[in-house]
């Protein structure tokens, strides 16, 4: 494969590339958005009970170990999901369960107990301690889990092409079947660019949200 082959493929398939890129990007954003709304509050609730935390995290780890293609295959057999975006979204949200809940739980639980006791001694309520102390101090770990979730979701979303999702994974699938290297490389390259772009963007947000002294070195 030469550079001219790649240029020719981009030129001939610009509209399709843009369509698949948009579909892939929106699928990732939807999955991550839904996951944040669901799993961040669950992670915060689990900090109140170590017994329930162990149970839920065990379930999350089990789900995370299921191969993505198997997960998609199971979901499409359920009438309410079937082929397409519903199954893809549900699977991606399930996969996001482990890194998000784990990061929120670990981030909050690892805050120095002396700081919490000092806050209680000052008369702060449980809610104020959570909002003003636990979450801000746990933010480096929470944000790290968020970034992992975004990159992971971007990659797994490509597998959804096998259940009818028209995204960049289709270039990889059809490129392998047809032995079409430019098509294969295009899909893989754009997925990588999306993942790196989103992670870089989140890194910039992290610099504003997390104080320099609390950031996790990378």
Automatic annotation (TrEMBL):
InterPro entries: ABC_transp_perm/SBD, MetI-like, MetI-like_sf. The chain crosses the membrane at residues 25-47, 59-81, 87-105, 130-163, 183-205. It is a multi-pass membrane protein. It is found in: Cell membrane; Membrane. Residues 21-202 form the ABC transmembrane type-1 domain. Keywords: Membrane, Transmembrane, Transmembrane helix, Transport. SUPFAM superfamilies: MetI-like. One of its GO terms (cellular component) is plasma membrane. The keyword Electron transport does not apply. GO terms for biological process: glycine betaine transport; transmembrane transport. Gene3D superfamilies: MetI-like. Belongs to the binding-protein-dependent transport system permease family. This is ABC-type proline/glycine betaine transport system, permease component.
């Amino acid at each position: 494969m030469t550079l001219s082959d790649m240029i020719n493929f981009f030129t001939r398939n610009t509209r399709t590339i843009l369509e698949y890129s948009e579909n892939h990007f929106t699928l990732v954003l939807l999955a991550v958005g839904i996951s944040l709304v669901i799993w961040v509050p669950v992670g915060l609730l689990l900090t109140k009970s170590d017994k329930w935390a162990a149970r839920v995290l065990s379930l999350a780890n089990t789900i995370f170990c299921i191969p993505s293609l198997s997960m998609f295959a199971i979901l499409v057999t359920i009438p309410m999901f079937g082929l397409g975006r519903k199954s893809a979204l549900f699977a991606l949200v399930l996969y996001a369960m482990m890194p998000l809940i784990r990061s929120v739980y670990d981030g909050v639980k690892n805050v120095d107990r002396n700081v919490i006791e000092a806050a209680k001694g000052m008369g702060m309520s449980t809610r104020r301690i959570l909002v003003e102390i636990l979450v801000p101090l746990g933010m480096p770990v929470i944000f790290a889990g968020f970034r992992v979730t975004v990159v992971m979701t971007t990659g797994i979303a490509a597998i959804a092409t096998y259940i009818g999702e028209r995204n960049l994974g289709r270039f990889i699938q059809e490129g392998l079947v047809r032995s079409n290297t430019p098509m294969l490389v295009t899909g893989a390259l754009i997925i990588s660019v999306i993942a790196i772009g989103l992670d870089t963007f989140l890194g910039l947000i992290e610099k504003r949200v997390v104080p320099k002294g609390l950031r996790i070195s990378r």
